Amino acid sequence: MKKTILINSILSEVIASMGHTDTIAIADSGLPIPKGVERIDLALTRGIPRFLDTLRVILSELCVEEAIIASEIKEKSPETYAELVKILGNIPVKEVSHEELKVMTKECVAVVRTGEYTPYCNIILRSGVVF
After folding, report:
1. CA-CA distance, 121 to 118, in Å (whole number)?
2. Could you give the domains of the chain?
3. pTM recorded for the entire structure
4. Residues noted as catalytic
5. Which helix (H) or strand (E) holds 86?
6. Average confidence score pLDDT of the chain
7. What Å distances lie between residue 6 and 36, 76, 91, 110, 118, CA to CA?
């Protein structure tokens, strides 16, 4: 059994297979997931698991060089945005429109669907390197 915090085998395998600049998205329950992109559906019910909790766990396993968010989150979900900035720490954050973020998910290796019901709680993480 793994000793690290992430125990979801599918998510763990996807992260382990990512290379430099590959992207993975963490999505609220409503984000459309493009055909052909792997869907890792963690959603159980409204709010479970939460977007921010899922982000924390993924950041414990994935080296991230950039995060991409929808600019709308700042206005529509300011408390979540403030917590998101804290969690990301020194990771550079790029803001795009929600429509542009949805298009960008087509290039992700996977989209992780959470049970989040808070508007615009979506992020794309660009993999970095550990050396």
Report:
1. 6
2. 9-125 (3.40.1650.10)
3. 0.96
4. 20
5. helix 78-88
6. 97
7. 25, 30, 20, 16, 23
